[in-house]
Amino acid sequence: MQKVEHIGIAVKSLAVSVPLFEKLLNSPCYKTEQVTSENVNTAFFQTGETKIELLESTDPEGVISTFIEKKGEGLHHIAFDVKDIEAEMERLRQQGFVLLNETAKPGADNKMVCFLHPRHTNGVLIELCQERS
Ligand code: ZN
After folding, report:
1. For residue 2, what pLDDT is reported?
2. How far is the CA of 99 from the centre of ligand 1 (A)?
3. Ligand 1 mean position to 125 CA, how many Å?
4. In angstroms, what is the span from residue 94 Cα to ligand 1's centroid?
5. How far apart are the C-alpha atoms of 10 and 91, rounded to whole Å?
6. What element of type H or E holds 90?
7. N-to-C CA span, the chain
8. In whole angstroms, what is the distance from residue 54 CA to residue 132 CA?
9. Spacing, Cα 7 to ligand 1 middle (Å)
10. How far is the CA of 32 from the centre of ligand 1 (A)?
């Protein structure tokens, strides 16, 4: 795996949290994007080489809504940049990790992504992402 590409933070409202993070990071939100397959709206900030991704649910039954209900707002996942996502998925499968999607799928920010089950990663949801060419 390469660098930490971004850190995902679950928030109740982008309208509230985007200005908050702009103040915190002293850096403007450079992109917002709806990811319909995940039922989320996302907002991105660049902090050095790493991005911050805020996630707001568009569905009261969606994964982000469920997460916030259980744990409250906060750190949701860590995403690692990978060069060859299918190869990395196969490597992790062989190491006994459980993938939440069996094939890489389109994610936000022009990426192909795959998530690992947090039960096998000390409770941390891990995302692999590869820039789409
Ligand atoms: Zn992410």
Report:
1. 86
2. 15
3. 10
4. 23
5. 28
6. helix 85-94
7. 18
8. 21
9. 7
10. 13
Per-residue pLDDT reduced to its tens digit, 77-91:
999 999 999 999 999
Amino acid at 23: K
pLDDT of residue 119: 93
Q: What is the mean pLDDT of the chain?
A: 95
Provide the residue type at 102 as one letter: E
Q: Is the dihedral of CA 88, 89, 91, 96 positive or negative?
A: positive
Q: Please tell me the distance from the alpha carbon of residue 1 to that of residue 84, in angstroms, as a whole number.
A: 9
Q: Spell out which residues have Cβ within 5 A of ligand 1, the ion.
A: 8, 53, 79, 127
The reported pLDDT for the residue numbered 109 is 87
pTM for the whole structure? 0.93
State both tokens at 131.
Answer: 């820039």
